[in-house]
Amino acid sequence: MKTYILSIFNMAVLTAAMLCSVAVAFAPGFSLENFQESLRDFSPAEVKKWRVEAERGDAEAQVNLGMAYWVGNGIDQNSREGVRWWRTAAEKGNADAQLMLGLAYFAGVGVIGDVREGYIWLTIASVNGNETAVWALHEPYMHSTLLLNKVEVNSAKKEAEKRLEEIDRRKAQNE
Q: What global pTM score does this model have?
C-alpha cells in the first residue's frame, strides 16, 4: 500500500493551478465555442503539419503543437515536450505560449513546479496583451494562495521586465 503525502508547497501549487484554470474559464475573451474547439480531437495529420511549421519557427504552430503534446491529443502525451514548444514560442513573444508556460509552472506538469516562475511568465503574458493572464494576475484569490510575499512578487516583476527586454531584443534582431 502506497501513501501519498502532499507538501504544503505542492498543495499551494495545485491550488494556484486550479485557480488559474478557473481564471481561464471566467476571463475576458473566453467563449464556450473556443473552449470546445480546444477539446476537439486533433488528427495526426494536423499535428504533423504543426510540427513542420513549428520547426520552421511558426510560433502559433509551436503553441498548437505544445497543446497537442500537453494533453496527448493527436500524438502521444508528453507534457515536457509540450512545455518545450511553449517555451520556444514564449521566448519569441507569443502571449498565449507565455500564459501556458506560466500555468505549466503553477501546475508543475512538464516542468518542476515553481510558483515564482509561473508568476513571471503570467506577468510577461499580461504585458504582451493576454487578457487571461491580466485577469489572473489581478484575481485576489490567486495572490492569497501563491505563497509569494511582496518582496518575491516585486523580484518576479523585475525578472519579467528583464525577460521582456530580451524577448523584444530578439524580435528586433529577427525583423
A: 0.75
